[in-house]
Amino acid sequence: MIRGGLRTKGISKKGDPGNPLVSIITVVYNGEKHIEQTIESVLNQTYKNIEYIIIDGNSKDGTINILKKYEDKIALWQSEPDGGIYFAMNKGIQLAKGEIIGILNADDYYLPDAVMRIVQANSKNPSDIFYGDMLVVAEGKNDTIQKPDISKMNEMPSIPHPTCFVKKAVYEKAGTFDIRFKISSDYEFLLRCIRKNFKFLYVPEIITTFRQGGISASCYSNVEGYRVMKIHHTGHHNAVIIRGIKCYVKTFLKKIIHLRRS
To answer: DSSP letter at 78?
Structure first.
């Protein structure tokens, strides 16, 4: 394992009741394309009492060089092979010292006042989990705003996890991410917290910009969604089977059309 950052030099931040320490965790593997924008979005937050932890899965591209560039601004970064995205997130949570924890994907970024909005919301209405709106961007498509709806969580992952900020105490009581799931553990975690009656608070602001794509947008997400819904007895797992079948059929037809045209 290699590591760096302020903590390796004995420098750590602390919080107090009026100025809580917020830990931001980013998990990355071969993310040189977008990781610098992600880092800058955290470092440029209007709220300053932040510790930034980056967990790298032994990247082979230029990611490590970018992390070293920010040695004097990142609380801690470390790089070693790991067991996947949720394994790495759990590692970051264990390392976090903040009262509130946000998890930011390596190709996404926060709006400048995202953390300030969360801290202000907690000051006015102390809660366990905070969540907000998400700006979704995709190449060749118009940007859209995804608004959460906690009342639909039994039917689908209707709270965008990239906007969530969770109290450290919640992870200590409810547990961290279930690494049996490869892409839906965030959904399972939030359902678990709903079942345990943790207090959720909606912050009506765009918190995170999310780059659409990857495995989370694939048909396989329906397979894991089905498993999560069965575990938590949501009553909607059969609908996910239908969505999954439609997704795979649609993907198959697209491949056939592409082959005929080529």
So the answer is: E
Domain segments of the chain: what residues? 2-213, 218-262
> Containing H/E element for 231?
helix 220-231
Q: Just give the CATH number of 2-213.
A: 3.90.550.10
Task: Extract the tokens encoding 221.
Answer: 């997400």
The confidence band for 258, taking pLDDT boundaries of 50, 70 and 90, is very low
- Over residues 150-178, the mean pLDDT reads 96
Q: What is the structure's pLDDT at 225?
A: 72
To which residue do tokens 């709220």 refer?
Answer: 47
> Cα 63 to chain center, whole Å?
19
Task: State the helix-helix crossing angle for 237-261 and 220-231, rounded to 10 degrees.
Answer: 170
C-alpha span between 120 and 205 (Å, rounded): 12
Neighbouring residues of 80: CB distance < 8 A, sequence distance ≥ 6: 1, 2, 56, 57, 58
pLDDT, mean of residues 212-233: 70
Distances (CA, A) of 98 to 38, 106, 143, 156: 19, 20, 32, 30
Q: Residue 19: phi, psi to the nearest 5?
A: -145, 65
Nearest to 191 by CA among 224, 231, 240: 231
Mean residue pLDDT of the chain comes to 90
